Amino acid sequence: MPASDSATGAAVAAPAPAAMPAASTAASPTSAAPAPATTAAAERDPRIARSRAALREALITLVEERGIDGFSVGDLCTSAGLNRSTFYNHFRDKESLLASFEDEVIEGLGGVLAKFQNIKLRELAAYSLTHRPLPMLVELYDYLREEGPFLHAMLGPGGDARFGMRLREAVCGRFVRSLLHERYQNDPSAFTRYYISFYSGAYLGVISEWIDSGMTETSEEMALISMRLLFIKPGESIKM
Question: What is the mean pLDDT of the segment spanning 196-207?
Answer without folding.
Answer: 90
